[in-house]
Description:
The protein is mostly beta strands. The chain has one domain (1-62): Ubiquitin-like (UB roll). The protein contains one helix and five strands. The protein has one helix at residues 46-57, and strands at residues 9-19, 25-36, 42-43, 70-72, 79-81. The strands form two sheets. Strands 1-2-3 form a three-stranded antiparallel β-sheet, with helices on one face. It has a two-stranded antiparallel sheet with strand order 4-5. The protein starts with 8 loop residues before the first strand and ends with a strand. 6% of the residues are buried. The model has no long low-confidence stretch (mean pLDDT 78).
Amino acid sequence: xxxxxxxxxxxxxxxxxxxxxxxxxxxxxxxxxxxxxxxxxxxxxxxxxxxxxxxxxxxxxxxxxxxxxxxxxxxxxxxxxxx
Length: 83
């Protein structure tokens, strides 16, 4: 795959922040992403983004979280625990 702006997308695992309120951010660890080698932009595949949406919908804005429970394994279609 190619980045719409610059270069080739590579499969990687990274931590990403998601803003869930006016002053709350959740950091999901060990997310499988497609990241551009040139510009560094990351894209989530639909199955991963669907699971991220589910996890973020369940978060209390006032809660402090250290990690989430599971995300789908992009190669197997199964869920795997996050460290």
